[in-house]
Amino acid sequence: QVQLVESGGGSVQAGGSLRLSCTASGNIGNIDTMGWYRQAPGKQRELVARITSAGTTDYADSVKGRFAISRDIRKNTVLLRMNSLKPEDTAVYYCNTVGYSDYVTPYDIWGRGTQVTVSS
To answer: Using 50, 70 and 90 to split pLDDT, how confident is the model at 102?
Structure first.
């Protein structure tokens, strides 16, 4: 099995910064993509940012220019640096990883989520 451990998050005033970290462990095999999604109250879960093993990144339009995703392949860790935070960024942020255990069996794993609260 693959497990994800998330850290970071918390409360900050508008304009502030936070950093989220997520580390994968277990029968990781080959990780293809790691990323972050978020879900605000009453809304559907949405992509924030993701990065592939090749380093290709994808961002939600609402966070482009403010958030930056990076990945340490050796440590199986993905970081999300969030700058110029806005109250509308308030949500539970979930780490996600997609890959192949034993390089054969696909997996799509979610973390438990971490709360990010931005006050105006």
So the answer is: confident
Burial letters 51-61, b for 16+ CB under 10 A, else e? beeeeeeebee
User: How many angstroms separate the CA atoms of 67 and 103, rounded?
Assistant: 31
At residue 13 the predicted structure's pLDDT band, cuts being 50, 70 and 90, is very high
Average pLDDT in the chain: 96
Structure confidence by residue, pLDDT tens digits, 29-68: 899 999 999 999 999 999 999 999 999 999 999 999 999 9
Contact 1, 106 (CB under 8 A): no
- What pLDDT score was predicted for residue 66? 98
Contacts of 15 (CB under 8 A, 6+ apart): 84, 85
